[in-house]
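FORM 12-B: Structure-to-Sequence Request
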């Protein structure tokens, strides 16, 4: 994993206001605004993560977003995953459980420095036995962002996830984004969760984006666990397809 760190200089987060496309990748903090009406946005990438002896590879993860009104978008998450345990002779691969959801714009006003949205996904147990959670689940986040200057802003999420058992997980993230140029952005982000409102898993990631044009963005990111063994590397793209005139 260390040998790929040199890649993290090419390709940020939703906080760079000079660009047209607004994305939910590569950071953990979901954007506080929705995509334009009647446009389709594809956010796809690969992620390689190792957590306490378990290697998880996702290739690809695809978030499909469609703007159906000025304040409402539909979302569909599909991904293929491959899991392996250190020393195991067999890998387990297949499509993950399907996620269907929405994001609602709660507050966005011209001239205001604050933008607010709410996101909710329903997890449907569609994967095979070795990969499914086998129960309905839900992911929920309140997303808020504030403009600091023309080249910097901060966004943060507070969320609650429930996967059909236990008390559920309280999640949080806070991403500080900077515009390094008209095309290159950079962010740093602490994030984590309280599993069953008890065990705290704290993490940190950072990444870059490169704006190819107003509708296409490339990204790269790297994250580590702060109080547990975890690291990941991810790279991908986001492409907005506007409605034909």
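FORM 12-B RESPONSE
SEQUENCE OUT:
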């Amino acid at each position: 994993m260390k040998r790929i760190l040199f890649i993290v200089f090419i390709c940020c987060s939703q906080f760079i206001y000079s660009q047209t496309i607004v994305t939910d990748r590569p950071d953990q903090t979901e954007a506080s605004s929705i995509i334009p009406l009647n446009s389709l946005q594809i956010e796809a990438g690969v992620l390689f993560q190792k957590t306490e002896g378990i290697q998880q590879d996702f290739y690809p993860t695809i978030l499909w977003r469609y703007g159906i009104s000025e304040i409402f978008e539909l979302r569909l998450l599909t991904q293929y995953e491959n899991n392996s345990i250190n020393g195991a002779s067999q890998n387990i691969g297949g499509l993950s459980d399907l996620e269907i959801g929405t994001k609602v714009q709660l507050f966005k006003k011209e001239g205001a420095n604050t933008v607010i949205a709410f996101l909710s996904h329903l997890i449907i147990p569609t994967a095979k036995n070795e990969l499914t959670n086998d129960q309905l689940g839900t992911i929920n986040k309140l997303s808020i962002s504030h403009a600091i200057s023309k080249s910097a802003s901060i966004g943060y999420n507070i969320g609650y996830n429930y996967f059909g058992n236990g008390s559920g997980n309280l999640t949080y993230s806070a991403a500080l984004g900077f515009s390094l140029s008209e095309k290159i952005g950079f962010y740093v982000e602490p994030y984590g969760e309280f599993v069953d409102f008890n065990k705290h898993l704290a993490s940190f990631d950072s990444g870059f984006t490169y704006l190819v044009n107003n509708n296409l963005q490339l990204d790269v990111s790297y994250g580590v666990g702060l109080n547990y063994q975890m690291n990941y590397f991810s790279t991908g793209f986001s492409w907005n397809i506007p409605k034909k005139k």
